[in-house]
Amino acid sequence: MPDAAPQRSDALKNREAILQVAHDALAESADASLNSIAKRAGVGPGTLYRHFPTREALILEVYRRDVDRLVDSVAHVLASHAPLDALRQWFITLAAYVRLKHGLGEALHTAAAQEVVGATSASVTAAVGRLLDACERAGEVRPGLDPTDVIMLLSCLWRTPDNPVGAAQADRLMELAIAGFRP
User: Fold this and answer.
1) d(C-alpha 59, C-alpha 49), whole Å
2) Is this prediction's pTM over 0.90?
């Protein structure tokens, strides 16, 4: 929102509630209605539409918010795990999120959506770079791994089924990739 006036605290609270409910509702069903999202968030439809005038605007803001949170989590994941374990955990979280994103269907294939996806891909690449740098400093991966290549290679993780068999397959695929990253 360029040049937007600061929002009141209740408006910010409503916006956050809408975004959280929308995230959860869209994870359950990509067809969740805006009215059902408003109701679950405890706001009226008018409040939802004031913040997000279209379904696409809401979906794109949920996407942007989730990617920002994921990128922002790198420091915490690195602080609470050894670097290679942090890389593993972060990519498993990324894979779960991308599965959700794919469930949003056509809403993320418009020109406006591609602009948002393009803008967030740089921050995801930078986050992977931070993880790889930490792994490299710890001697756990060979020097010079390209974050874009690692993302492309590990994109197989979000193609695994979202069930225990898929999780086991994702673990195996992750370990195969890490074996290739080692010095």
Assistant:
1) 13
2) no
The rounded percent of the chain whose pLDDT value lies above 90 is 60
Number of residues assigned to the chain = 183
Cβ distance 98 to 152 under 8 Å?
no
Lowest mean pLDDT of 56-70, 139-153, 163-177, name the range. 56-70
**Nearest C-alpha neighbor of 7 from the set 47, 45, 44:** 47
Which helix (DSSP H) or strand (DSSP E) does residue 40 occupy?
Answer: helix 34-41
pLDDT digits (tens, 9 = 90+) for 21-33: 998 998 888 788 9
- Identity at 171, one-letter amino acid code: D
Q: Is 43 left (phi over 0), alpha (psi -120 to 50) or beta?
A: beta
Q: In whole angstroms, what is the distance from residue 135 CA to residue 29 CA?
A: 37
The answer to whether the beta carbons of residues 38 and 44 sit under 8 Å apart is: yes
Q: How far apart are CA 183 and CA 178, in angstroms?
A: 10
CA distance 167 to 75: 25
Other CB atoms closer than 10 Å to residue 3's CB: what's the count? Answer: 4
Residue 19 pLDDT greater than 50, yes or no = yes
- Distance between CA atoms of residues 35 and 140, nearest Å: 49
* CA 107 from centre of chain: 16
